[in-house]
Amino acid sequence: MATKMILDCDTGVDDTMAIMYAALHPDIDLLAVGTVWGNVEVERGTRNTLRVLDIVGRGEVPVAQGAAGPLLGGPTEYAYHVHGDDGQGNAGDAEPVRAAEPTTAAQQIIDIVRQHPGEVWLVPVGPLTNIATALALDPELPKLVAGVSLMGGSASAPGNVSFVAEANIWHDAEAAQAVFAAKWPVVMAGLDVTMKVLITAEHRDQMLAGGPAGQYMGRIIEFYGEFYRDMVFGDWSCAMHDSIAVAAAAGHLDVQLAPVVNVEVDTTGGPGHGQTLVDLRGKYRGYPEQEGAHTTVLMEISDSIADTVVSLITDFQGA
Ligand code: BDR
Ligand code: CA
After folding, report:
1. Angle between the 201-208 and 305-315 helix axes, to the nearest 10 degrees?
2. Dist. CA 89 → ligand 1 center (Å)
3. Is 151 a pocket residue for ligand 1 (Cβ < 6 Å)?
4. Residue among 83, 171, 203, 241 flagged as catalytic
5. pTM given for the model
6. For 272-314, what is each residue's pLDDT tens digit?
């Protein structure tokens, strides 16, 4: 049976790849997508999401717009320098898109999860504002989902917005803390693994030579790869990030190390703000069971998932 999923995206470049992957893979039943602020303003993220679903021939997947800023208010900061002004590497298109659903991303989660109790994976790959809002609106949600597979945080890798914080968690640390505290199974695909699964120049060229989804993805990833070339790796390649959370929920990952441990989020406003505090003290004893722990932290995975996802997107020849 295909894995039922609701994605929640701040649709930039790597989110786009995650949407295409979830929309095209036969093992995944993509029930809906929610949008959230983060890489770009939420309205732009919604437009990108609708357009990307059109490109992969999934115009029937409902898209609901969510939060325009953090749970407790405060400033929004976007990542145009990473994802382009349009969130699509300054290479998106101006094709018209359909309207989003007349509901919020948080309410959409509640409604769909309640239609399929125990079956739906929530896959947030942006700030966790919508997920925390859904939790606040429906405190029974943790008993009703299959799990939450999120892209965010870091156990021991360096941060990417500060020396210890990853962007999705840092953007809305209070929302993230609420999500990690709720008693549902969480899979954390953080920088420990997402910085090690790379989309290479060969992958880009493969996609450019493929069908309509591949050509679009190959085009928009250029700018994102240039950011990683200039700021991170020194040559053109980029972190796959968001697709790893999709792969974890779908059971597509070859996992070598993923302890189930306690995770807290630093919400102090100090230099550690937005850091995921991951209890790795059991490392020397092979990670024995920790009381109350319900977060599986991906620490070591095979990078072959990049080839799988790139081929899936490349090979799509249109609906
Ligand atoms: C995360 O931040 C965003 O820029 C990416 O889309 C990804 O979800 C990586 O830290
Ligand atoms: Ca994202």
Report:
1. 20
2. 14
3. yes
4. 241
5. 0.98
6. 999 999 999 999 999 999 999 999 999 999 999 999 999 999 9
